[in-house]
Design a protein that fits this description.
Length: 196
């Protein structure tokens, strides 16, 4: 149950229509958007992971997840296009990165070969989507302020220096992401949830 839930939710980020929709909001094509996601998601996860290592930060994140219960994932194209998503994303980025936000945006833009405006747009779009994913997992699998940091660290530690998302987002030649997603996530999913 735990593995199938997370595999399904995290798979939303690599569906072709989702990538196209994110790119449309940022003015980037599919290859550019994939590259940007490869660089933006680790930055977001790292920021959330860092903040969640303190008791106050973990509790703050859990409170935020109360407002992101996963319902927005039911219609991703509409959610991605919504101006409310961008507004929410801007607030999330400010909270997560604070004064470092401009540097994060610049880093994503430089690595991805896109403008800072596009990089900012992509970050603003995926921030609430990622919180929605965590929020749904919290409700269904019992994420708490005590284990949320471990979940985020697990994502980062299994990226192998950033190659995790690169491999994940490049696995689109046959249009079937399920098996690739399973093989990459199953070990850390078991270690975090099944052994708890």
């Amino acid at each position: 149950m735990a593995d199938q839930t997370l595999l399904s939710l995290l798979g939303n980020f690599i569906k072709e229509d989702t990538i196209k929709a994110i790119g449309n909001t940022a003015g980037t094509d599919v290859p550019q958007t994939k590259t940007a996601l490869q660089n933006a998601l680790p930055e977001l996860i790292a920021g959330l992971s860092k903040n969640s290592k303190t008791k106050e930060g973990a509790e703050s994140l859990m409170n935020a997840l109360n407002d992101h219960n996963g319902s927005a994932l039911n219609n991703l194209p509409r959610t991605i296009k919504s101006s409310d998503t961008q507004t929410d994303g801007a607030k999330i980025l400010e909270h997560v990165f604070g004064g470092n936000q401009s540097a994060v945006v610049e880093n994503v833009a430089t690595k991805s070969g896109i403008s800072t405006s596009s990089a900012s747009g992509i970050l603003q779009t995926i921030a609430p989507l990622f919180l929605e994913t965590l929020g749904k997992t919290k409700d269904e699998q019992g994420l708490t302020s005590n284990n949320i940091s471990g979940v985020l660290s697990g994502l980062l530690n299994n990226q192998s220096g950033g190659s995790f998302l690169l491999n994940l987002l490049d696995q689109d030649k046959d249009g079937d992401f399920k098996d690739d997603l399973f093989s990459m996530f199953i070990n850390w999913i078991k270690s975090i949830f099944i052994k708890k």
